[in-house]
């Protein structure tokens, strides 16, 4: 007998790919302070800790090209990142096997309510309201790894209204993509559909309504998003 529900379940959230198919998202993991310069600008020692993670919701991934400024914040910041999408999973994955799990890559933004995050830090509380609010992860098209290869170098940039605000290189990641996947798999059972945002370079800063943001990862792609 088929499963009966108290109401019809929501459809699986998807993000678009360059192949014209939707990528079904299971979970969204984010790596904190994974570029040394960004860790320093946020007041932390980049050599003092192993990688740590927080989560967003699948529905936070938004490829519409628009970002609604959240009403609960007065200080929303941009953070450009490389998005990694997994086609398979596992527990205790070896670094050497990690890239076999990757379906593809995309440029993305980890939008952050910096005022809410600062208050949560001060109170010793989780960052959920600062990181997992609606449409908090704008993203571009997901490109298969068969097309991009496995990018370990390349410029990652963010422009606001034509002015360069963030600029780094994937080679500057403290914890590289295979290491992030391996370390994450020691804490969670990874599976197909999981998405990882790998951290942001220095230069994070506020956005305003009307701003146009252009996020780019060399060899992967670029996309623009309008704040309203």
UniProtKB/TrEMBL annotation:
InterPro entries given in the database record: Fumarylacetoacetase-like_C, Fumarylacetoacetase_C_sf
Top-level taxon: Bacteria
TM region(s), chain numbering: none
Keywords noted in UniProt: Hydrolase, Metal-binding
SUPFAM superfamilies for the chain: FAH
Annotated GO MF terms: acetylpyruvate hydrolase activity; metal ion binding
Limits of the Fumarylacetoacetase-like C-terminal domain: 28-227
Pfam families referenced in this protein's UniProt entry, alphabetically: FAA_hydrolase
Name of the protein: FAA hydrolase family protein
Gene source species: Spiribacter salilacus
